[in-house]
Design a protein that fits this description.
Helix content: over 70%
Strand content: under 5%
Low-confidence stretches: none
Structural class: mainly alpha
Mean pLDDT: 94
Largest sheet: none
Radius of gyration: 18 Å
Shape: rod-shaped
Number of helices: 2
Length: 80
Amino acid sequence: MSLNEESLLAVKILSEELADFKKEHEDTINKEKEFRAKEDFAAKTYFAEEIFLLRQRKLTLDTEIMLREKRIRRIELGYE
């Protein structure tokens, strides 16, 4: 099935957003790993709040990525 110009533009925009979200997702995972490595329980150095917020952001990004992928697929299949 051939996509019209409007659909192609929508897929292009969604793909760009998807790439941005995936990059931010990877950055978030790396930041969480850094905070976990910095924690020192013996010295009572904790980053629970930062880690929690990063995990929350990661879950949000997981959802945004999933929604973009599904929307692109729906457009490609001609449902939108």
